[in-house]
């Protein structure tokens, strides 16, 4: 009979153990005192489990890792995930933006289903057990913990998570185990994170958000990147889906140029016509014709010395040029990225080249599998990372049974 050890009791680990138990015994090891702590705080505790869309559409939301994830997403699709939780009695709700949550908005409801499914299949869950190393022997695998040597196991699934939110137990230990087994680790770094701007001058507008902003990222290491999305101003820089989803393409020293104007190539004509038509109004009223809020517009005008109490009839050609430049051409240099304590996900991890995407099995060590965020994959906001965790876990568990 097959005996599988799964290291890490998060979404990926639970799914791997649940499906591996269909063909034998499965033991789930968790170093924290309780399982799935990061799941419980995902989406501020509301748990955005997945997103609307087909597996093919999902692959577009993982950067360069979409192709690698394709087999897993087709093996356990977003629709299959929805059916899994719905069949267990969890009512789900879909927002207009496509995000799918438990209707209760409680991540604990999702965890209860995972725990019940594991219990029903006889999965043994061991908490407060830190796996320090994996030993490969002729009889199988042995896990070395501070207490004793566990095993032998026919197969091992490492689902130790990434490094984001380290207080939940995500500290990169899974990658250290993989590296000791001969695997290459791509440098782990924060993903889905905000950016902090050097000498940021827009902090007084923090909390204001702007829909469908066009932003250009300028870097010395790669071509110019042009992106669009919803932007949020923070006390120290920028955040919001536009930044979070593209933070994988940014690093300190890069410059970002948001377009708070939003009037396209004819912006000067629109501005000139408005000034001619509304000559008796104050310059401060211009904030209503741009994407910038009144507070943001006022801050930008203060920076370039434009008196917002000046009548529009007094706005010269040079004034218009300066206004438009401040709104759509100003460069903001990235001083730092958000760290692991605030990042929603982790980029980097076990090299995808060393994992069979059709099975999640190691190409280096027979019988060793990987699942979840510790693999070099990171998705956009909106449930894509949790779906990847569930799908890779299911595929690893099923592959163990099929082998």
Topology:
Layout: E1 2-7, H1 11-20, E2 24-29, H2 37-41, E3 50-51, H3 55-58, H4 66-75, H5 78-87, E4 92-94, E5 99-102, H6 107-120, E6 124-126, E7 133-137, E8 140-144, E9 149-153, E10 155-158, H7 173-180, E11 185-191, E12 195-197, E13 209-218, E14 225-233, E15 237-239, H8 241-244, E16 255-259, H9 267-277, H10 294-304, H11 317-328, E17 332-337, E18 345-350, E19 368-370, H12 384-402
Parallel strand pairs: 1-2, 1-10, 2-6, 10-19
Antiparallel strand pairs: 3-5, 4-5, 7-8, 8-9, 11-18, 12-15, 12-17, 13-14, 13-16, 14-15, 16-17
Structure description:
This protein is an alpha+beta fold. The protein contains 12 helices and 19 strands. The strands form 5 sheets. It has a 6-stranded antiparallel β-barrel. The chain has a 5-stranded parallel sheet with strand order 6-2-1-10-19, with helices on both faces. Strands 3-5-4 form a 3-stranded antiparallel sheet. A hairpin with a 6-residue loop joins strand 13 (about 210-220) and strand 14 (about 225-235).
What keywords describe this structure?
24% strand; alpha+beta; elongated; six-stranded antiparallel barrel; five-stranded parallel sheet; 12 helices; 403 residues
């Amino acid at each position: 009979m097959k005996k599988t050890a799964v290291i890490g009791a998060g979404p990926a680990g639970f799914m791997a153990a649940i499906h591996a138990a269909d063909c034998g015994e499965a033991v789930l090891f968790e170093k924290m005192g309780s399982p799935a702590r990061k799941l419980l705080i995902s989406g501020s505790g509301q748990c955005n489990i997945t997103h609307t869309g087909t597996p093919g559409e999902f692959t577009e939301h993982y950067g360069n890792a979409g192709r690698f994830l394709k087999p897993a997403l087709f093996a356990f699709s977003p629709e299959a995930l929805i059916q899994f939780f719905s069949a267990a009695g969890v009512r789900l709700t879909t927002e207009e933006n496509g995000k799918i949550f438990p209707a209760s908005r409680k991540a604990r409801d999702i965890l209860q289903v995972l725990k019940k499914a594991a219990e029903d299949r006889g999965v043994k869950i061991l908490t407060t057990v830190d796996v320090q190393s994996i030993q490969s022997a002729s009889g199988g695998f042995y896990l070395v913990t501070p207490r004793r040597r566990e095993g032998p196991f026919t197969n091992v699934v490492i689902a130790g998570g990434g490094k984001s939110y380290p207080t939940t137990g995500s500290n990169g230990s899974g990658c250290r185990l993989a590296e000791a087994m001969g695997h290459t680790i791509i440098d782990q770094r924060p993903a889905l994170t905000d950016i902090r701007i050097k000498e940021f001058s827009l902090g007084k507008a923090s909390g204001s958000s702007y829909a469908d902003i066009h932003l250009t990222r300028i870097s010395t290491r790669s071509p110019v990147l042009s992106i669009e999305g919803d932007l949020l101003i923070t006390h120290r820089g920028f955040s919001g889906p536009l930044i979070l989803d593209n933070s994988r393409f940014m690093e300190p020293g890069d410059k970002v140029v948001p377009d708070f104007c939003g009037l396209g190539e004819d912006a000067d004509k629109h501005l000139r016509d408005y000034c001619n038509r509304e000559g008796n109004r104050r310059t401060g009223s211009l904030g209503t014709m741009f994407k910038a809020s009144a507070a943001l517009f006022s801050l930008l005008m203060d920076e370039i010395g434009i008196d917002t109490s000046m009548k529009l009839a007094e706005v010269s050609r040079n004034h218009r040029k300066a206004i438009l430049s401040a709104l759509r051409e100003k460069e903001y240099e990235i001083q730092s990225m958000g760290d692991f304590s605030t990042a929603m996900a982790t980029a980097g991890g076990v090299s995808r080249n060393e994992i069979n995407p059709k099975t999640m099995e190691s190409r280096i060590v027979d019988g060793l599998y990987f699942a979840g965020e510790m693999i070099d994959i990171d998705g956009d906001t909106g449930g894509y990372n949790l779906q990847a965790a569930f799908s890779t876990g299911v595929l690893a568990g099923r592959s163990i049974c099929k082998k």
